[in-house]
Design brief:
Blueprint lengths: L2 H5 L1 E2 L6 E2 L3 H12 L13 H21 L9 E5 L7 E3 L15 E3 L5 E4 L7 H13 L5 E5 L2 H7 L20 E4 L9 H11 L5 E4 L3 E6 L2 H20 L1 H11 L1
Parallel strand pairs: 8-9
Antiparallel strand pairs: 1-2, 3-4, 3-7, 4-5, 5-6, 7-10, 9-10
Helix pairs in contact: 3-7, 4-6, 5-7
Length: 254
């Protein structure tokens, strides 16, 4: 995409288009050169504006997932904690195409995955939300979770092994950041397995590999969880390219 397109931002307040000036660009570069960090998670003057921001970014994450081919029928689901009512969560409606997802399509559910608000014209994936619910309960820092049936994530999960640190990007998942759930039993219908998922992720985990199933990522924001999912999927793809080497190593051990 051209720089002009990426910088052409529409202001919500007055509808005018805003373009950063050369002076503003230079100031940003100087701040970075002096070690000043980039702006973090934004703050909002009201819960309504915060919620709107979250749902718009959630819809964008679904569309990115669809563009990357992470869709598989009705499978997969993302969730994000409501900023005003932290024991409720926004998630996607069952059977709605991810490529067409809008902020107004999201459903508000409780810990049991039952719809209590938002767009209730479709049911939520209550069975799918069982995967998320215990993670949200156990980890107050987990505001968002993403789970999809991506090709390379499913393929690598069949090994039941963590990613190796074979490149710089994979190092994001070093140590306790990645976890393996070896006994995944399919569709989650009970609290017991949901709790086992949370236990497997642990207090510091960011990504959870469900053996023979796929990937699940969590984050403080839906942006973080979605980014980690795309990075984990790409890292699984790179790891699979090393599979012949791995198989040769296993053969020598037999």
């Amino acid at each position: 995409m051209a720089p002009q397109a990426t910088q052409d931002i529409v202001s919500r307040e007055n509808g005018k288009r805003w373009l950063p000036t050369a002076k503003q660009d230079q100031s940003a570069l100087e701040a970075l050169s002096q070690g000043t960090p980039l702006r973090g998670i934004p703050t909002f003057p009201s819960f309504h504006e915060h919620r709107t921001h979250i749902l718009e970014h959630m819809a964008a994450a679904f569309r990115i997932f669809a563009r990357n081919g992470y869709t598989e029928g009705m499978a997969g689901h993302n969730s994000v904690r409501d900023p005003e009512h932290p024991h409720t969560f926004w998630t996607n409606p069952l059977g709605h195409a991810w490529a067409l997802m809008r902020a107004s399509d999201m459903i508000l559910v409780n810990y049991e995955g039952k719809a209590i608000g938002g767009n209730m014209s479709r049911p939520s994936n209550s069975a799918g939300f069982f995967i998320h619910s215990s993670l949200h309960k156990a980890r107050p820092d987990v505001n968002a979770a993403c789970h999809a049936h991506s090709i390379h994530g499913k393929a690598w999960s069949a090994f039941g092994r963590p990613l190796e640190m074979i490149n710089q990007d994979a190092c994001v998942f070093y140590g306790e950041a990645q976890a393996i759930y070896k006994d995944f039993g399919g569709v989650v219908f009970d609290d017991a397995e949901s709790q086992r998922l949370a236990d497997a992720l642990g207090p510091k985990g960011k990504v959870l590999m469900l053996t023979n199933h796929g990937l699940l990522t969590v984050g403080e924001t839906v942006d973080e969880a979605a980014y980690l999912f795309t990075l984990m999927e790409r890292s699984c793809q790179i790891q699979l390219k090393q599979t012949p080497r791995l198989l040769m190593g296993w053969k020598r051990c037999i």
